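In the previous chapter we treated chains in isolation. Here, by contrast, the input contains three separate entities that must be folded as one system, with a combined length of 643 residues.
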Amino acid sequence: MTVEFWRWKEYNWHDPEIDPRDAEVLSSGVDVGSVSSQAVVMADGKLFAFSNMRTGSDSPESANKAMTWALEDTDLSLDDIDFTVGTGYGRVNVPFAGKAITEIACHARGANFLYGPSVRTVLDMGGQDCKAIHCDEKGKVTAFLMNDKCAAGTGRGMEVMADLLSVPIEEVGEMSLDVEEEPPPVSSTCVVFAKSEASALLRQGWPKNRVLAAYCSAMAHRVTSLLERIGVEKEFAITGGIAKNPGVVKRLEEELGVEGLKTEADTQIAGAVGAALFARALHLKAKKA
Amino acid sequence: MITAGIDVGAKTIKVVLLDNGKPMAKRMVMAGLDTRTALDEVFGAALEDAGGLAAEDITCIMGTGTGRSEVTIAHDQVTDVSAAAKGACSLFPSARTVIDVGAEEGRAVRCNEAGGVDDFAVNEKCAAGAGTFTEAMARALEVDLEELGKMSLRSTQAVPMNAQCTVFAESEVVSLLHAKTPKEDISRAVHDAMASRITSMVRKVGFEKDVVLVGGLARNVGFVDSIQRGLEIDCLIPDEPEYVGALGAALIAADRVAEGS
Amino acid sequence: MLANYGYTDGSGDYFITVDTDHCVECADRPCVPACPAAVLEIIEDDYGDEVCAVVEAHRKQIKYSCAPCKPATGWTTLPCTEACPHGALTHSW
């Protein structure tokens, strides 16, 4: 049996306390990323339902699936949704979306919702990109920087390492923190070269935890450089899959000297949340016109 | 006067021995996991080939390549760029531009008729700019490197490759295969993508005839074709392109001895 | 808004920064035709403003797209940054 160590848990959820039929506006956001897809449904701007799954080979199909899954067991169908905004790499491929908005704007808006209006700097590390965003108290973008060319500092980079070490991706963070002394970071930025470096370290007798620590440390350092290009203004928040990796988060906070805000919500849905909020605003605007 | 050039690359180690500037012996070995051992092995083998020489018989040993600091027996070191220019010009006196692509680095060098360096640009620390890229794509397509190169020439359609990173390109290749894109077309896209990164470096230094392709990647017919189409010029390729760096280093060693330094 | 287009990889950081607050005041947009490689374009951003941006296809290879204007033996000015009357365009490399 081949175990796929990069495979994190896909799931859906809805709030049983909310009756969507009471809502004036039902809006949704669908974030089709290169690696994962999320669909979020909001009832009058309150989080009602969402799904988080791996993006398939077909973007429109992934968008449909994510939406269907989010609506599962909610007694709602796509027709009940007043407006949908598509975002992410596959945003133009969300067949039922009324508009496509960039993931930069959606993550800023989503972070503002998940972390509150005090957020000014958002770091999002997605499956195949890394974004640093400045926003105002309304979640409007005032500066941004995105790197989607290079795998270093992205979820894919982490997956490559998890695969090499045969460690399930969800355990990478904790394992990397289980070291007596912080090892020197992996010296190669490039994931391909870092993988060779990690293999050499393993052959030298380094335990997996230590190798993971070295890699998470390098990743945190790399992300810090990216953030410092636009500056870190408090409050600081991290969205995307990497927020779930304490090995990178902790090292990043240490290097920046800033602690990030925390949330109970699933950080991977931030983009779709922002999109759903944009959708609500667009629907209300159209109604007035 | 015997000189030696030892080129410690990311993937292979090359040794060239020259007797008054004329080739005596050459050997190549995979650098593998233990560079030191591989180095001793390949150097020893070259000395044997040259008629059972000893290291002391060599007037000057010149190290080059990314791992040149590991060549403890070397009397001195030269950069890859200098070695490539010298080596290429000795084989092709008309060479004025040298494109040297190895496993982990790609270089564009403008040289003069003495084999000296006038200008250069390097693609480093990113696997997408060197041989590691084509190797990874060959694995993704489940063919060997030689086949990858040949397949590229049989392509009938240009297919865009959006990924600029080896890791993302692997995923893109998988998607293209999923979409039933012919492997030949994917292979050509791979070589075109890589070649365009190299030709961009070449344009930074400005290129002039004759253009010589050296380094391991010069053996890849698909890559060569993509470079030639990209620059719109036919390139000269030595019979054994991997040895040009070591050859250049050995020649520079000979020059130094002649100068009395 | 400060929009940074480009990337960072093992070989360095390559970003073109557009200060879009200036773009909204700009009538002619001379930056677009100034670039010999057609790297720049005018887009409508997420907030409805018409601003200068790096063409999507160039963002992941900006080092290579801008290479012709940045020869190895030094350069002093770039046509795009020179053309912008507001100093809204900068290159990080």
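The beta strands of chain C are 2-9, 12-19, 40-44, 50-54, 89-91. Helices of chain C lie at 20-23, 31-34, 56-59, 62-65, 79-83. Compare these points with the single-chain example from earlier in the chapter.
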